[in-house]
TrEMBL record:
GO cellular component assignments: plasma membrane
Gene Ontology terms, MF aspect: ATP binding; ATP hydrolysis activity; P-type magnesium transporter activity
Name of the molecule in the record: Magnesium-transporting ATPase, P-type 1
Gene that encodes it: mgtA
Topology of this chain in the membrane: Multi-pass membrane protein
Organism: Lactobacillus crispatus
Transmembrane spans: 68-91, 103-122, 272-290, 296-323, 680-702, 750-771, 791-808, 829-849, 864-887
């Protein structure tokens, strides 16, 4: 039974509990939390999960179906429709004589609200479900001890009282009282903004004078903390919203949504629409009020015009595009964590990545274990095995390679029996080495260190060849470096190995003990290039993506691998090459160079930041702790499912396999999503702009409204519904070969080119209807017509413009979706073709169905008018093709 816990209905962390726990002994904490060193039982876990809920930090916005339903029906579009329906209820039903009551207009508008709302609702639910399903494919787990057995379980299943094991690279899943630590260094930047790692020690209780500084307790770690090195075991004291992190933020800091170019583009479009609406809607209201004399009708028409100017299907089409793209990407091994990052993924023109596992097989083998005479010897492998086997920090592929090689050449069981671990000094990216202290059965201690060449040579003062130990001179240091360079030229990555017998005994060893070591040998590792990587890099180059390698490895190894896969090796810069350079010089260096070596995590992030300042959209692919700063800086962060927790948490996109081929496929899908989204935005805005120009002309010269508000809204709804097919359209290969950014500043130009093109044919239609079609059908011109004839005249006019306007809007999709001539050199997908032509046919049928025509106040227009519309469409497509040609003389892209 849980004796001391946070109340589940309290959304704030219980800091008093933290203070009490920090002052208790480990045994007291376990007892009060109803736990033990062996962890909880399955039955107890179930009780606590039922009581406290899953280990998740809630967000301000709950993605419930009720929320989506409310959000879907309360949009500007549906609210305007509801306003119009309400006004129509009063003007057509409540305040009219019994024989004139008519609810058909109200029914149609309510139907439109239902269709629009349900479409948006279904799409939002699909989006949410798709994201959740995709994220389930990404493993975020925690090592939990239950029933005495350590096991990897989903992080959200962590409960109060669980025993948690943590290692380098882990994200701390809950608030934890440490029970045991070993050189545990953690970064708590998500809580206190301090990125410098702090050592955590389970046995150190807080001083009475510093109890208020609970974030600095050495024996407590909090959710959101990153384990930089070392290891530890602790008991969970709070989960989910009851953690300190849950109090400070409703979502983990590195999951904050970055504002992408996509978001900026949508905001800019919204601003543009607001400006246009603020200008045009009042203008339409005033013109119609003055020329027609009916200010109520003018107001309703102005509101409908404003709605017509707004691409109300944009949210639905954008989310539909993103969901379709993310599902397609998942089939190719790419999981999208943050939907709005897809566009940045497609827009990326620079990909920064480490070489290991990206250019290479990520199957490291220990090729050679030489002594200083460049001869293989069991002593070197034995020392390497002691270092790799007994360490608990950042065990990487090289450690695995050492252990695998030792199993084949040494009696590893004998080594494990004869040695016990005393301590370790974890790896960090400044020292670039790590040490293990072990004890032999005879009581002798030995410190074994391996690491990068320069860093190792700095802490060695002797060398061993055979049984002989001699001083390490500067001349011999240069000889060692020459050997390493020769191995690097063969594509081998080399670390040096050293040791010290009987180091001064201490409770806790630290970096100060890594001195006066005896250099003993080389460990040379091979990670061969992937077979297909040369071809994939060629494809990425054709796609307009420059690949830059950012690695902590040395220049020789990196150059060897780069030459084999076809990367430019003319320039190779290391971190030291940036020293003393001004901003302009550094910007030029990062542009011209493809290989950056011996980089710290901070310098990786700096290079990405400079590339962004140079105007690039940068993707970064990483899987380790050292990649996190770069991932947070990049426009789109890519990781792999086998990455450390902090890398997966920082990622926007996760690959199920570390492969550039998967990434290249994902980039093309991202570009197709962007293209189909831009089709809707550009085509709809230009089409709507053309309609507005036509309305202004018609409102100025016609003695009646060119179309009823309800008719204008239905026209807009039919067109918008047909546009729901656009996410399923194709893009030509030339479009997919070029990275593209949102350029909202080009939208007005696009609108001013193609909007008036449709207006020309609207004005021709107005003239044909007013001076020919309607007089022919009624038997007289409007000027001398009787009141009843004028009603028929106007109704026929509305039918005629409704049909022509809808067809031009549908056909402009076919005309502007691609630079080539429509229906001859390019055509849409079958679904888009069906949707656009189908929408045109439905709209054409409305004036000919008596009940619908009556409800919408359409008049019966002569059938021969359809031939007139067909002829106008041919001319319209022809003129649009000419305008496209003129537009592309000065612009690089159409869409």
């Amino acid at each position: 039974m849980l004796k001391e816990k946070v109340k589940p209905n309290n959304n704030l962390a219980d800091t008093e509990l933290v203070k009490r726990v920090a002052q208790q002994t480990p045994d007291e904490t376990l007892q009060k939390l109803g736990s033990s060193p062996n962890g909880l039982t399955a039955e107890e876990v179930k009780k606590r999960l039922d009581h406290d809920g899953p280990n998740e930090v809630g967000t301000e916005k709950r993605n419930t179906k009720i929320h989506f339903l409310i959000e879907s029906f309360f949009t500007p579009f549906t609210l305007v429709l509801l306003l119009l329906a309400t006004i129509s209820l009063f003007t057509d039903y409540l305040f009219v004589p019994a024989n004139q009551k008519d609810l058909s207009t109200v029914i149609i508008m309510i139907t439109m609200i239902i269709i629009s709302g349900l479409t948006s609702f279904v799409q939002n639910v699909k989006t949410n479900d798709a994201v959740e399903d995709l994220l389930k494919m990404v493993s975020v787990t925690t090592n939990i001890r239950r029933n005495g057995r350590d096991q990897e379980l989903p992080t959200k299943q962590v409960v109060v009282g669980d025993i948690i094991n943590i290692h380098a690279g882990d994200m701390v899943p809950a608030d934890i009282r440490l029970l045991k630590t070993k050189d545990l260094f953690c970064s708590s930047s998500s809580l206190n903004g301090e990125s410098t790692p702090v050592e955590k020690i389970a046995s150190k209780k807080p001083d009475a004078d510093h109890l208020k500084d609970y974030l600095d307790y050495l024996n407590v770690i909090y959710e959101g903390t990153t384990v930089v090195s070392g290891s530890g075991t602790g008991v969970v004291i709070a989960t989910g919203e009851h953690t300190v992190f849950g109090r400070l933020a409703k979502s983990i800091s590195n999951n904050k949504v970055k504002e992408t170019n996509f978001d900026v583009g949508i905001k800019n479009i919204s601003k543009l629409l607001l400006i246009m609406t603020a200008i045009i809607a009042p203008l339409v209201f005033i013109i119609n009020g003055l020329t027609k004399g009916n200010w109520l009708n003018a107001l309703l028409f102005a509101i409908a015009t404003a709605v017509g100017l707004t691409p109300e299907m944009l949210p639905v089409i954008v989310t539909s595009n993103l969901v379709k793209g993310s599902l397609e990407m998942s089939k190719h091994g790419t999981i999208v964590k943050k939907m709005n990052s897809i566009q940045n993924f497609g827009a990326a023109d620079v990909l920064c990545t480490d070489k290991t596992g990206t250019l290479t097989e990520n199957k490291v083998v220990l090729e050679r274990h030489y002594n200083l005479n460049m001869k293989e010897t069991p002593l070197v492998l034995r020392l390497a095995y002691l270092n790799s086997y007994f360490q608990t920090g950042m065990r990487d592929l090289m450690d695995k390679a050492v252990i695998d090689a030792a199993k084949n050449e040494l009696d590893v069981k004998e080594i494990q029996q004869n040695y016990t671990k005393v301590d370790e000094i974890p790896f960090d990216f400044e020292r670039r080495r790590m040490s293990v202290v072990v004890k032999q059965q005879d009581g002798k201690w030995i410190l074994v260190t391996k690491g990068a060449a320069e860093e190792m040579l700095n802490c060695c003062d002797r060398l061993q060849i055979g049984e002989q130990v001699t001083p390490l001179t500067d001349e011999y240091k240069q000889r060692v470096l020459n050997h390493i360079d020769d191995l690097n030229q063969d594509g081998l990555r080399v670390v040096l190995l050293a040791y010290k017998n009987n180091p001064e005994e201490a409770d806790e060893f630290n970096v100060d003990d890594e001195k006066e070591l005896i250099l003993t040998g080389f460990l040379a590792f091979l990670d061969p290039p992937k077979d297909d990587v040369k071809d994939v890099l060629r494809k990425l180059k054709l796609d307009g993506i420059s690949v830059k390698i950012l690695t902590g490895d040395n220049a020789a190894v990196t150059k060897s691998v780069a030459e084999r896969v076809g990367l430019d090796t003319k320039y190779i810069y290391s971190e030291s090459d940036f020293a003393g350079k001004n901003t302009q010089q550094i910007k030029q260096m990062v542009e011209q160079c493809s290989l950056f070596v011996k980089l710290s995590p901070e310098t990786k992030a700096k290079i990405i930041r400079i590339l962004k300042e140079n105007g690039h959209t940068v993707a970064y692919m990483g899987d380790g702790i050292n990649d996190t700063p770069a991932m947070k800086t990049a426009d789109v962060a890519i990781s792999v499912d086998t990455a450390v927790d902090i890398a997966k948490k920082s990622a926007d996109i996760i690959l199920l396999r570390k492969s550039l081929l998967i990434l290249e496929n994902g980039v093309r899908i991202g570009r197709r999503i962007f293209g189909n989204t831009m089709k809707y935005i550009k085509i709809t805005l230009s089409s709507n702009f053309g309609n507005i120009l036509s309305i202004l002309v018609a409102s100025t010269f016609l003695p009646f409204l060119p179309m009823l508000p309800m008719q204008l809204l239905i026209l807009d709804l039919i067109y918008g519904t047909s546009c729901l097919s656009l996410p399923f359209d194709t893009m030509n290969n030339k479009y997919l070969e070029i990275p593209r950014k949102w350029e909202t500043k080009k939208l007005p130009k696009f609108m001013f080119y193609f909007g008036p093109t449709s207006s020309i044919f609207d004005i021709i239609t107005f003239a044909l209807l007013y001076f020919w079609i309607c007089p022919s059908a009624v038997g007289t011109s409007y000027a001398v017509a009787s009141a009843s004839q004028k009603v028929i005249f106007i109704a026929i006019f509305w039918s005629g413009w409704f049909i022509e306007s809808l067809w031009t809007q549908e056909m402009v999709i076919q005309a502007l979706r691609d630079p080539a001539v429509p229906f001859i050199k390019q055509h849409s997908s079958a679904l888009v073709m069906l949707a656009t032509i189908g929408a045109g046919l439905i709209g054409t049928a409305l004036p000919y169905v008596p009940s619908l025509a009556k409800a919408m106040k359409f008049g019966h227009i002569p059938e021969y008018y359809l031939l007139v519309v067909l002829a106008l469409l041919f001319l319209y497509i022809g003129l649009t093709t000419v305008v496209k040609h003129l537009y592309l003389r000065k612009e690089r892209f159409l869409i």
